[in-house]
Amino acid sequence: MDIPDFRPSTRFLGNAPHKPHNRTKPANGGRFRLRDWRVRSRLLALIVIPTSVGVMVGALQIVASIGRAGDYQRVLEKAELSAAISELTHRLALERDRAVFYVAAGRKRGREAALRAGFGPVDAAVVTVRLKAAPITPEHGDGAWYVTQQLLGRLPEIGAIRETVIGSQLLALPTLTKYSQITTTFEQFHVHISQGVEDETIGDGVRSLSALAKAKDAASRQRALLAGAASARRFQTGELDRFMASRAQQESEVAVFKSVATLDEAQLYDDTVTGTLVDRAESFRLRALAQDKEGAPLDIDPDGRGDADRWFAAMSGTVDGMRTVERRMTESITVRSRALQDAACRDALLAAVGSALLLLLVLYVTVVMARSLVGPLRRLRTEALRIAWERLPETVRALRESGDESALDVPPIGVDSRDEVGEVARAFDEVHREAVRLAGEESKLRANVNAMFVNLSRRSQALVERQIRLIDGLERGECDDRRLGDLFRLDHLATRMRRNSESLLVLAGQEPSRRWHRPVNLLDVARAAVSEVEDFERVVPFVADNASIAGEAVNDVVHLLAELIENALSFSPRDSRVTVSCSTIPGGSGVLLSVTDTGIGMTPEELERANERLADAPSVDVSVSRRMGLFVVARLAQRHGIRVRLRRHGPAGLTAMVFLPDRLLGPGEFRTSRDPTSTARPYPSTPETATPEHPRPPHPGHPEHP
Hints:
The chain is mainly alpha-helical. The protein is built from 18 helices and eight strands. The chain folds into three domains: 55-356, no CATH class; 410-510; 520-706, Heat Shock Protein 90 (2-Layer Sandwich).
């Protein structure tokens, strides 16, 4: 047989120590005590100040400083690449001028050696440019990224131009053009150094550096063109125009440089790009232009020999002077970028340290505010939960069970502040006192009602017992079958009235007035339960006849079974049967009685609520009047440790399972009426004086009184 899991629901209620009543008054103190602040003021101080100060001052400054440091780091990387490009441009321009000189001089072997001697420094400068260009990404600016990719793509062309110059008959002017195309690409990078920053000093330095680089390249082209023309004693086609254009560009770019550069940079240029070589180069240039205008062969140095070499050396003084200024300017831009980056990093560090200190201060203020707010709230919460789950239930239980007046003394919650938390604590104390007072009044009312129940029950029981004894006497002397049947029915009604009176005692929490001193056979117990219900003829029991119930529990078990059987009869069709059966629990730990009907049944929700009532007997209230049978069963089961549970039986109907523990059973071999060797028989049975037309309810005999 399927044995259900009987687990009555219980709730643990700790024993809270009772303290003498001592109403706590708010402590006296200054009006500016922190714990007396309003909650709104604390929350404003706790949330608004730390949030606004921490977020606005800390986060914004740190993010801005880190962003500026990143921008200046990218400017520094571009400045370093610009310096490498300037060095490569200067060396490549020297190689270009020597290549033009070499071609114009007829590709002599001595000139070729001088040309090849310049390849090594150019190649070294190319390696440096590639290294410095590696960190450049689109984050450095679209223009800088694009020009960097262009100049990296131009670097392999240097080797091809060298092979063309040495291994072919390329003329001087095309040679100049091929090299100039590369150097022009290199010069485009300088204007993108300051992209992404707003520093005016760096911006002016970049513009002046770009103008100076273009002026230097124009001077270098003049060096190459006039050196070739001096070697050939005349300007070839287009060379003079190119020479004049380069001179005009040099003067224009120098003017731009001086207009943008600082006074110190302009003075540096004037002090550096000067001297004997610069004057000699200017003299050679003017003489060459005059001779070409007159149509005479070029003889720019009538006092010496090697006009081309002397011009190349003199003009190199001008170019080298410009290179010196250019190097100083690139160094200045690099130093300025590094200084700005260090300053930005220092600002970020200071902002971080300041924010950390500010956050520590905010944390301290937060902790102080939070403790002043959370401490009382936590005490209030702890005490409120303790009152709700321990003290108040224990007080109500004490009032119900013993009516102890000392339980009305309610200790206050230990929060004495004058803010909202203190006001709530004192309000909760008042609610607690009112709840205890109402519980005390309810306990008194319940005691009065129970006393009335007991008084009415005792009176009714005394009358019913006298009535039953009178009916028994009439039955023994009556021979008329019709009257005997009426007496049987009257006896049955009296028995049911006695059970209802005993139900009043159960409601009042009183012990039964009738007890047995010795065990009673389980079969007789079942008979007694059947005898106390209406329509007992519909009950079909299959109950053991060799098991017994302990005497102190006999009447309560009879009452419990009678309530369950009557409930089954009331909610099942009048032509149906109610079966009472029993079986052993595996392991021999008790007996399971089952009362099964085929009635209307219960919904799952109703079944769950009914089992909850059976597992944990509720207090007497209005709902008990509608479910009095279940309440009586629950109280009786709780009194003896009996477990009762309802479950569905087939498509309709219920089975009430009653587990009788082993300690309630008396000695004897257990057999059911379904066992062929059992002497039990189905009920109802009739005594010899009963007739089939007027059956008498089964009855085990009158109980013994203590």
